[in-house]
Amino acid sequence: MEFEKIAAFIEQHHLLSLATIGQRLWCCSMFYAFDPEAVAFIVASDESTEHMRNIKDNEYVAGTVALETKTVGKIQGIQFAAHVRKADDEESQRVYFTRFPYARVMNPTLWRIELDEVKMTDNTLGFGKKISWKRSPSG
């Protein structure tokens, strides 16, 4: 039940904020497609960007997806810890290009942000309500 609530929220959105660390801290916004089977965001990014150079040094990242609202009772969002891998498999491509078909013509490099831990705040369930999920050690 908890993971399903988190997955439903993630699937309703398309933009995440990602924090990386390498030579220095860096943050970026990225469009994503969600793969619920793998519990991973699929994103496109050139290897020359600062965040991808950081990921080459340190694959561990953190980030957020949030609903933008001024109404306290509607606040929803997730914080996550993850690791990043190149996504050159057919399933990742299918997931990403189904969500963003126009991106195919740019022939982007795809990456999998594999979620290790997620904490969701969902004020629609009560003020400050938290839902948590962790990947099991076996994957």
Structure description:
With 139 residues, the chain is α+β, with helices and mostly antiparallel strands. The chain has one domain (2-134): Electron Transport, Fmn-binding Protein, Chain A (Pnp Oxidase, Chain A). It has helices at residues 2-11, 50-57, 90-99, and strands spanning 15-21, 25-31, 33-35, 40-44, 60-66, 76-86, 110-122, 130-134. Strands 1, 2, 3, 4, 5, 6, 7 and 8 form an eight-stranded antiparallel β-sheet that branches. Strand 3 (33-35) and strand 4 (40-44) form a beta hairpin. The longest helix has 10 residues, at 2-11.
Instruction: Please compute the radius of gyration using only Cα atoms.
Output: 15 Å
Number of strands: 8
Distance linking N and C termini:
19 Å
The string of secondary-structure elements, in order, is HEEEEHEEHEE
User: In terms of per-residue confidence, which ranges show pLDDT below 50 for 5 or more consecutive residues?
Assistant: none
What is the total domain count?
A: 1
CATH architecture: Roll
Task: State mean pLDDT (0 to 100 scale).
Answer: 93
Strand content: 35-45%
Give short descriptive properties of this protein.
Pnp Oxidase, Chain A, 139 residues, 8-stranded antiparallel sheet, 3 helices, globular, alpha+beta
Give a short overview.
With 139 residues, this protein is α+β, with helices and mostly antiparallel strands. The protein has 3 helices and 8 strands.
List the helices and strands and how they pair.
Blueprint: H1 2-11, E1 15-21, E2 25-31, E3 33-35, E4 40-44, H2 50-57, E5 60-66, E6 76-86, H3 90-99, E7 110-122, E8 130-134
